[in-house]
Amino acid sequence: MKTGYLLGQLLWRWVLGGLWVGALLGGLTACALQPQAVPSAAVLTKPAGGALHFSPQHTAQWDPVLLPGKLRTAFKLETHQQRVAVQADAGASASMLRQRLSVPPDQLGRLRFEWQVDSLIAQADMAERDSEDSPVRLILAFEGDRSQFSAKNAMLSELTEALTGEPLPYATLMYVWCNRRPVDSVIMNPRTDRVRKLVVESGPVHVQQWRRYQRDIRADFEKAFGEPPGALVGMAIMTDTDNTRGKVRAWYGNIDLD
């Protein structure tokens, strides 16, 4: 018990602040969403030439991921400013909602998403290990050739698989709101280079406003990692203040993969 707990703490000290591990859980296999009828453990496959639409009602049913030793960020479905959204309330906490996907590289296209934050996290700095918090994150996990891992990442992947039954994702790309770093900056995770963050919003100018984005997944992955992406195998939303011990509230709207 004590050894397993210490290993778990070591793992999450290395990777928390930007990394999910374990099973990346599921959804639906077509454009029309019926979240009440489909268990979240299903793998959602993007049809060739088709699209996937995740409404807040569906996102709210993604599987929660609780991180060892961390308080849980509260996610709930609510009406905010006359629209349905997933509300996230973080208070010195970190957790996420995740969905398993199966999107081959040749089907990667546009990603459209929207969110709003009530405030920024005053002490947060996404490049620093001890203050790496963000009011909103949209996280994408990709497959790839793990034989290319460094010795450190290979050890981390083996430890992850031993603890969770799943290896470390080959690459994790996060879209984030940063306090001060410029839009389109790429921030390397301080614990592993297999997690990289792309800043899509910076500073307080648009706080308390709905912000909508359209991104080219392939181009963003190549910008962040310097190589073509593999299959997209998972998606998550995450709001965290565990490092700064602060409080923040955010809302997530529709997410679309075209």
Question: Any key phrases for this structure?
Answer:
disordered N terminus; 8-stranded mixed sheet; 4 helices; 6-stranded antiparallel sheet; Jelly Rolls; globular; 16% helix; alpha+beta
Would you give an account of this structure?
- With 258 residues, this protein is of the alpha+beta class.
- It has a single domain, classed as Jelly Rolls (Sandwich).
- Strands 1, 3, 6, 8, 9, 10, 11 and 13 form an eight-stranded mixed β-sheet that branches. Strands 2, 4, 5, 7, 12 and 14 form a six-stranded antiparallel β-sheet that branches.
- Strand 10 and strand 11 form a beta hairpin.
- Helix 1 packs across helix 3.
- The longest helix has 14 residues.
Please write out the topology.
Elements: H1 2-15, E1 44-45, E2 52-54, H2 56-59, E3 63-66, E4 74-80, E5 83-91, E6 94-103, E7 110-117, E8 137-142, H3 151-164, E9 171-178, E10 186-188, E11 195-202, E12 211-216, H4 217-225, E13 232-240, E14 247-257
Parallel strand pairs: 1-6, 9-11
Antiparallel strand pairs: 2-14, 3-6, 4-5, 5-14, 6-13, 7-12, 7-14, 8-9, 8-13, 10-11
Helix pairs in contact: 1-3
